Amino acid sequence: MPKDHDGIGASTKRREDVRFLSGAGRYTDDINLRGQAYAYFLRSSVAHGNLTSIDTAEAEAMPGVVRIFTAKDFEGVGGLPCGWQVTDRFGQPMKEPGHPVLATGKVRHVGDPIAVVVAESLAEAKDAAEAIMVDIDELPAVIDMKAAVAGGAPLVHDDVENNLCYDWGFVEENREAVDAAIRGAHHVTTLELVNNRLVANPMEPRVAVGDYDRTTGEHTLYTTSQNPHVIRLLMGAFVLGIPEHKLRVVAPDVGGGFGTKIFHYAEEAFCTFAAKAVNRPVKWTCDRSEAFITDCHGRDHVTKIELALDAEGKFLALRTDTLANMGAYLSTFAPSVPTWLHGTLMAGNYTTPLVYVNVKAVFTNTVPVDAYRGAGRPEATFQLERVIDKAARELGIDPIELRRRNFIKPEQFPYQTPVAVVYDTGNYHATMDKLVEIADVAGFPARRAASEAKGKLRGLGIAHYIEACGIAPSQLVGQLGARAGLYESATVRVNATGSISVYTGSHSHGQGHETTFPQVVAEMLGIDATQVDIVHGDTSKIPMGMGTYGSRSIAVGGTAMVKATEKIIAKAKKIAAHLMEAAETDVELAGGQFSVKGTDKSIAWGDVCLAAYVPHNYPLESIEPGLEETAFYDPSNFTYPSGGYACEVEVDPDTGKVEILAFSAADDFGNVINPMIVSGQVHGGIAQGIGQALLEQAVYDENGQLLTGSYMDYAMPRADDVPMYAVDHSCVTPCTHNPLGVKGCGEAGAIGSPPAVVNAVVDALAARGVTHIDMPLTPARVWAAMNAAG
Amino acid sequence: MYDFEFVKPASVADALAALSDEDAKPLSGGQTLLPTMKQRLAMPTKLVSLAGMAELIGVSAEGGVLTVKGATPHAKVAAEATAYPALAALASHIGDPAVRNRGTIGGSLANNDPSACYPAAALASGATIVTTAREIPADEYFQGMFTTALEEHEIITAVKFPIPEAANYQKFVQPASRFALVGVFVAKFATGVRVAVTGASEEGVFRWTEAEEALSSSFTPDAVASLKAPAEGMIGDIHGTPEYRAHLIGVMTKRAVAAAA
Question: Roughly how many angstroms between the first and final C-alpha of chain A, as a whole number?
Fold first, then answer.
């Protein structure tokens, strides 16, 4: 395929960057409506307590106060819904306690909203909030998950025994067979590990602006969301009771989401509700400190994993026990993350025949925990790739060789895993070979010797991941407990002179859809990509769509766009056939020209479009005028990107400081639309994975105070924390069940990198007796591990 | 942030007059005070700006002493303290460029954050803190975390650093804030060696006298190789235990000597 064009395969520069990099982006906080009032949330400063009284009288008399809201204003309003119901291993539904918009009767985490002041200015709202008298009868908090489920712990929700949301087993029928296989195995490697709790920290904090038109009864919510239609559905149907035709949700430019902007938050419902109640627009802007205690956190699993192997290193069985933190309330998709997005990936790239995953989801007095870049899949990959590395060391088998011995072979696809999912395609040997090449694994011993000569400990860590993207067939996820469909939509509107607007349900908040999606349409039609624009993020403009998460945009949203474009081409061929007086079956489209096979007759794309809208010479008896088509696409399977990651580190034995010297990634994303953007996605994902592995952790003290509530204590990766990356996506096994053969690339970097980093550090310290260190591998922890082991 | 009055006096004398109001506070670079005010943790009624006052800005060297005026930003020290390279290097690694262009030496020393860099330089150099009222030797100036000998509304007008024969500052950063988890400033004078440690102690910056004695007899890394700073009294938090900080004091001291010698 020629690459001197701007269609599929071209590294076209991101057109959206012109506005993002020149300060011309239009974010939610840039929206200021006439007569707008400002909301300030008074939040709990204690983690757990009974709300005994709220006295707003003095505050209401303060200057600028429009109205003060408490839970009693929300009587009769629904709570925030949970979008996924997990059934436990005894066949019972999970415990699903209420999640009120404002704390009702009890506060359950630091940051739980108690009251909201709406005032003429933010400063006046804050002043008034300080005058609200709140009495809280403080209760002991439960923070540690093991303590929470141990019996006798304080209860986050009085009706949830032992703080246990669910006890999930997967595959439950395999439980005894797995136990037996482990009992009888030649070797069992056991590892206890923590997947550290993270704060997503998108560059743009959350914002909501509610507006209400009393002449029409129409509500509008401007919000920082990855999926405006989902917010409209959840908030309209379950919280506020507003029908969709009277509720518009707009997510304009959004400055990063990483999962944390999928969910429906109380502030969105509040601003929508309050705008009608006070009859003027109401705006809330989260500040960074508030984001730390209100944005859903990510990860926070504690796991014991056991891998049984035979004498040749073949994996026989795998068993895991995980405690997964839900926080104080169930966020929108929280129950799905440690279960269906995690357990179904525990086969990894391997032929392990027996797998049993047990997950206990636990309520604690902390901020709710939900999906964060990778969502369940990083947790699965981390466990698996760490325990394999440990097994390799215990058995004296090279870790790359051990993985190769257990890889699913290319000829085994489609491959039915023992954990429900069927991998359609893949070639793990190829990505591992490519990784070994680009990471120069052969040269490592010499590099290690050079490091040792200058007193440094060098390590090489390998990981190989699989993920399930393109979430997913609606029928399947419905069986698994999802309360939403997971298709995607697209409308392709061809304008009269041939330019095109594509209305997509996929939301772009950094992924580059505005560049990539037009490349696909341009390729299909043979026109210039600059003739195609993307419209997204506004429920009043685009058909019902499910939004962006789970690396699903190109695989699901892109396919919907392809299907709609195929309909456009079919209709345009009919028009062209009429105009060229030829049989429709003889009409071909190439390079933006329709032609008649075997003749020199042709007509340009633009002329056909014009005929559709100026139908003077047009077969009106058989075709409608106009050229606009919509498609909804619901995939038949997930997509399964995979890849090999290698990390090379130096550890300073005096201080425990880890420096990443090299990082290589060989990914199989199937076909790639824009290689530059795909590389950028991998770069960003690896940076976040390195952040998790070395730097980031949300820490609560025993009273439920967040100790890492600002960047003074929560360490985000900076430019000098990450190396130059060697990224390759030349290994391609196209997805077999979507027309583009694409798989998705948004989360891979964050999934594959943490185990590669930790494996590298453990490799560096193995000679000193270190077998595991929990993330983040801060200098203090590495130093302590070295000294404890030595 | 609560409402406050902002005044920008033309001279130090005018600033002192403006500060006589109750609840007035001097504002230098604002790198600590402004974030505190934004979080509504401080509510001065009046801010008296010391920034941009010509008589408070400048770096000069004369007679073996480097003088940095009180409101000189870190970036200017980094660029102009060529007579005292270790001090210039320290200034060039405080915070980020925005911090270095706003933050001042006087603000840093007046605040005396237990993890700040400048206190280590001032104490190790045996500097003199010059204020609107008097001259205070560094050994008397630092009195514990966020505590100094300064009286209310006493302004630091200059810091006089005796220039050592050799010096070096080694900072091991806290991963999030990149303040010093442990920072060690070593300064060798004809009269002896001074070693000051920041970031580590619950009492703020302090002199490690055991190391000073060892280095005064032999200014080599080996001289301190077997010394161990006590963990008792060191800070323990999510970024490091007292034992780790105590260990790092030894490592950073050795490295500072190696770099200076």
Answer: 57
